[in-house]
Amino acid sequence: MNYFPISLDIANRQCIVVGGGKVAARKVKSLLAHQAKVTVISPELDPQLQHFDEKESIKWLPRGYEPGDLAGAFLVIAATDDTSVQEAVHQEAEKNNLLLNVADVPKWCNFILPATVRRGELTISVSTAGRSPALAKKLRQNLEKEYTDDYDLLLQVLGRLRPIVLDMGFPHEKNKILFENLLHEDMINWLRQKNWQELQNHIRSILGMDIPLATLIGHEAQ
User: Fold this and answer.
1) pTM of whole model > 0.90?
2) Residue 87 and residue 22 share a domain
């Protein structure tokens, strides 16, 4: 299947996880990391899910899935090996046009969760459309080695430069050229080496103005 790649804002949205094992725990942890409101439906809970329940980070329905449980959901994850439950959850989700992922069962999914590398607000994802999770995992591991935490700082610097460029009042095409020129191939090395002078020299050469280091780097400049 040719999936459409998309990033979702799930903050404060109702997400339901059917299942209470280790796979469910991983899914719930990721949902909570993105500020979702999570309900878990399962007779029993993995220790990590028990911890989330004790902290009141999730709502737990201590029973099996029942038709109608998905009412009000924005997104649903079925993390259970019970094929009858998988199919029932799929039918209800399809009927109500809900986003559904059934762990390790692509045929029931209308979205899949890619292998993901996160560096602050930088997200790099790999998907094999569910055909080879092992390959997706291998590619993610390679990306983790190449894209280190320094890329988070690179993104912060570029993000801080963006409004400065936009405030200069140039037309869109001129701004596009400026943004491309600002992203020098050596910028990541300057940041790794804390070569602030070279960084500022480069930005001055592109924008024709000095940008205070504190504006670009913040506490990293100390």
Assistant:
1) no
2) yes
The closest of 99, 104, 101, 102 to 132, measured between CA atoms, is: 104
Query: Which domain covers residue 190, as residue numbers?
Result: 150-221
CB within 8 A of 94, min separation 6: which ones? 100, 110
Q: Are residues 158 and 82 in the same domain?
A: no
Residues 104 and 3 grouped into a single domain: yes
Summary mean pLDDT of the chain: 95
Q: What is the pLDDT at residue 218?
A: 79
- In terms of phi and psi (left: phi > 0; alpha: psi -120 to 50; beta: otherwise), the region of 147 is beta
**CATH number (domain holding residue 5):** 3.40.50.720
Query: Are the C-beta atoms of 114 and 124 separated by less than 8 Å?
Result: no
Q: What residue ranges of the chain have pLDDT lower than 50?
A: 221
In whole angstroms, what is the distance from residue 108 CA to residue 116 CA?
22
